[in-house]
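Suppose a colleague, Dr. K., hands you the sequence of a protein chain of 201 amino acids and asks what its three-dimensional shape might be. Before reaching for any lab equipment, you can write down a predicted structure in token form. Begin with the sequence itself:
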Amino acid sequence: MKLYYKPGACSLSPHIVLREAGLDFTIEKVDLASKKTERGDDYLEVNPKGQVPTLQLNDGSILTEGVAIVQYIADQKPDRQLLPEVGTLARYHALEWLNYIATELHKGFTPLFNPRTPDEYKTIARETLDKKFAYVNDVLGKQQYLLGARFSVADAYLFTVLGWAKALKFDLGAWPNISAYLGRVAARPAVDAALTAEGLK
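The predicted structure, expressed as tokens, is then:
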């Protein structure tokens, strides 16, 4: 398999999950501005959406959207328990978290990365994210990971998105449980390997 990625972008989430699952894969960097891969290929021919991540499967078929990709990867290696079993309530709680991170956190950051966003709106976006962080901080005060004691695909996604908070100079010291969580996740060998491979360490 091949993962198309941009360092530190949301593609870091499936990159971590691929390593946690112990699957064989390669990575190829994408310049999202030029829509070219590091080999000089037209990325729009790979993924017409022009976004990362994209996972090219062994048969050449393409899967896009990070939330779908991490579920696919986890289901290839159920013994790694990166997602609870299909049909269990725990599985739906995992999907609940994936959707919350995608819609409330990930998309909440979007205006902060756009240089054309007015400063007034950036202030509102930051205040909104602060409230979401407070909720996540409360949850992580009660358990090690989002689903309890075991790391899951939802944690790979949350770790990725919270990394943007640091880059945008949010004061994460205001949320001690989040800070401790980020340290816990960063210490995992698969996460460390993904960060190193993307040049983020």
